[in-house]
Amino acid sequence: MKKVLGLVFLMLFLISATEMTSPKPHAKKSIEGTWELVSHYNYDNNIITDTILANENLRQVKMFYNGKVMWARYVPQDSTEWFGYGSYETTEDRLRERLEFGSAAIMKIADTLMVFELELILDETSYSQINIDDEGNRLFSENYKRLD
Fold this sequence. Notes:
This is Lipocalin-like domain-containing protein. The protein is mostly beta strands. It has two helices and nine strands; from the N terminus they run H-E-E-E-E-E-E-H-E-E-E. It has a single domain, classed as Lipocalin (Beta Barrel), CATH 2.40.128.280. Helix content is 15%, strand content 49%. 11% of the residues are buried.
């Protein structure tokens, strides 16, 4: 009986001596995941001149996984009208998207531009994809927050 009680007290002591916290989530500095558009920036001479907040009624979500990208924008008149699918590659500061197919409206717009070369600013909770001109000057950006 004394051995059993001793064993129980030893177990209680060991359990109480351990730290009872949940593990901290791993920091993600990867574009893989699901993102929601929060704003656009316009630039002049590489300086932000205007911030346009995303319209809550036209929600845009983008998903990156295993080299594939898909995005959709909710448009109340036709929820299937704005979407695209393709592949992507990233480096530390660049994002390249290649559109493979999309809605009819997107394919009309992207008829001549199927590959998008973008500057990338990425951290654990947000990213910006910045359109640049031929001389490397920033023109405008889409800014996203991580959903997952």
